[in-house]
Amino acid sequence: MNSSHKSHQLPLSHLLLALAIVAVWGTNFVVIKVSLREFPPFLFAALRYIFALLPLVFFVPRPKASWKNLCLYGCAIGVGQFGVMYFAIDGKISPGLASLVIQTQVFFTIGFAMFFAKEGLRLYQAVAVAIAMTGLGIIALHTDANTTFVGLALVLFSGFSWGVANTVSRRAGAINMFSYVVWASAFSIPPLLLISWFFEGGTEGMASAMTSATAWGWAGVLWQSWANTLFGYAAWGWLLSKHPAAVVAPAPLLVPIFGMGASAFFLSEPLPLWKMMAAGLVITGLIINLFWPSLKKGLAKA
Q1: Contact 124, 288 (CB under 8 A)
Q2: How many CB atoms sit inside 10 A of residue 27's CB?
Q3: Which of 29, 81, 91, 234 is deepest in the core (most CB within 10 A)?
Q4: What is the SS3 assignment for 141-189?
Q5: Residues 95, 29: contact at Cβ < 8 Å?
Q6: Cβ burial, residue 287 (10 Å; 0-12/13-18/19+)
Q7: DSSP per-residue string spanning 95-141
Q8: CA 35/CA 222 separation, integer angstroms
Q9: What residue spans define the domains of the chain?
Q10: What pLDDT tens digit does each residue of the chain (302 aa) get?
């Protein structure tokens, strides 16, 4: 079994699909930043999930998950992750750094798994967390007008919420992830609309933003809904169903590379040495967490 996993390789078409997913997820941070020029953050998030829900909810069967599970996932992913992250990217943190910091969801997911499974923290995981936290510390020491401490804290909370969503979806069992995302979107929309109504100008402010938005603004909304949410999750779920998780799982490590690269190219976001060091430390922590067990087995056999 182990040997087959070790020699398992992605066909070229599947590798290209994985790269396409990661490219969409990474460059999406530029789309978010540009779209936030036309929509306030929580309304933007609500519109994302409205178009992820409609009209597909009428054609996609409900997944085999409880309403409570769908509600928890929808609130965690819609409000806690994306609503808060949009709010952060709206002037409180640069999109490139946001694409990096959000990857802390890996460690939050591990933490929740340990809490519920009553497992102890393994040494390599502690080392991985320490290295990644050092990278976050470097970012915290370099806050400025483009990246504030509040923005960093908000994106960390987004990573925490993503970890909650990962834990909730795993507890749903074997499900169709595409239909799960579609149906859970129904629970993301009401709280996002309520927050938007309360903090972003009420009915008049929301209506004004939508009527004054350009075609590019609406294209950004649809990109969030269809490319990032539906294509990304559906294609990712399909790849995971076709290949061992260990073969596919490393791909998202490229998300910050695409995110920071696209932000530098399209938004002229600077890439000073401290930012590259922080990115290197966070990604190194993620790599250690992901690959150390396999590397240790390989060294033992050698």
Answers
A1: yes
A2: 23
A3: 29
A4: HCCCCCCCHHHHHHHHHHHHHHHHHHHHHHHCCCCCHHHHHHHHHHHHH
A5: yes
A6: middle
A7: HHHHHHHGGGHHHHHHHHHHHHHTPPPPHHHHHHHHHHHHHHHHHHH
A8: 11
A9: 17-117+146-259
A10: 444 444 466 788 888 998 899 899 999 999 999 999 999 999 999 999 999 999 999 999 999 999 999 999 999 999 999 999 999 999 999 999 999 899 888 788 778 877 776 666 778 888 888 898 898 889 888 877 778 899 999 999 999 998 898 888 888 877 888 899 999 999 999 999 999 999 998 999 999 999 999 999 999 999 999 998 888 878 887 887 777 666 676 777 788 889 999 999 999 988 889 989 988 998 888 888 777 877 777 666 76
Tokens of 222: 């649809």
Secondary structure (3-state) at 200: coil
Name the residue type at position 34.
Answer: V
By the 8 A CB rule, do 18 and 239 touch?
yes
Q: Give residues with Cβ within 8 angstroms of 4, minimum separation 6.
A: none
What tokens were used for 84?
């808060």
At residue 68's C-alpha, the angle toward residues 65 and 73, to 5°, is 80
